[in-house]
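From the shared-data thread, chain only:
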Amino acid sequence: MRIMAAGEFQLKREIEYGSPEQNAAVREIIAAVRAEGDAALLRYTERFDRIQLAPAELKVTEEEIRAAYGRVDGEFLAAIREAAANIRAFHEKQKRTSWMEPSPDGTLLGQIVRPLRRVGVYVPGGKAAYPSSVLMNVIPAQVAGVPEIVMVTPPATGGESGINPYILVAAAEAGVKEIYRVGGAQAIAALAYGTETIAPVDKICGPGNIYVALAKREVYGAVDIDSIAGPSEIVVLADETADPVYVAADLLSQAEHDEMASAVLVTTSEALARAVRDEVERQLADLPRAAIARKSIDDYGAILKADSLEEAIEVVNRLAPEHLEIMTADPMDIVGRIENAGAIFLGAYSTEPVGDYFAGPNHILPTNGTARFASALGVDDFVKKSSLIRYSREALLEHGGNIMTLARREGLEAHARAVEVRLKAEQNQDRGKEG
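Structure, as tokens:
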């Protein structure tokens, strides 16, 4: 890994919006699904996954889900259940309630919080099977009260119509009852616009390849989406007290995700910087995904030497990382000065995988520096809020003049008259009573 002065480093990585050919292909697929429904889903499944399905085979049966339990080990089942309980308990604390506040003049203001009616979760298939992401997408929606949660995931390619059993078990443990074996841009189109078999949803969540990401971007507006996620990122902020073995292991835990993943150490210690550089090389030697991690480290990894803790914190806030680990003598003394980070891990034993799998906070986090303004996926992403306004006669009489003034300054006379006709009616009524 490169060691450089903290002030010299700038991570330059454009958000991937695909090539013109990829975007054109996605638009063609979406248009076909909108026009042909299930027929297009089946055609693209045969083309891309090399599997022929009948329309009735799109939906995963209860028998398949039950059979999946026999194909996973007990250790996984125990772990996924405990993780699900932790995730649920954390997200329960995010729940909001509706509220109403009356005023003495008869005004009533408030906010009604309602869950979305139907949410679609995309889960990658094939080699990229992530049961933990099933939990992270589904459970917040459940806690929010979403009554219908549907999952789509591609079947195994090359003639097998089955779905990874760990994905199915995770979905079942999270409470998903509606699952379809369809993937790619065609699955996103089906969720957004509906087919004969798959009813449309209000929001689509979950990771996928470039075609899935482009399809989500394309259908946004017809439905809501979670985000267009970029490659994974980790920044470790450390001083001389950090263990270089731990730091190197945590950097590699993200570098193995993707050739474009970013792993950065920001430290005030020259000795730690050199020790971590050497330790990364040592641990890379026998890492199963060494080729991916090596490419990530070489292209997007760095060790940044800061002259002071203040400079180190400034660099972290500028990077706005998806994951931030603070390995200093007193992490709690620093955390209040961190303004931009998706998730913050405090101390030597709070390694990033603790958050990825088990602790409870969501691992679907803002990337590409968007932690400057975005947050982790949570319950708020699955609710909508309606404002509630009730004005009394007395309140309108008192404030109507101000409302008309503002409307007329904006050139919207009909707005002003909507208030004025009421005020005049009340004034006439009052005169009639006096007469």
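The first helix runs from residue 20 to 36.
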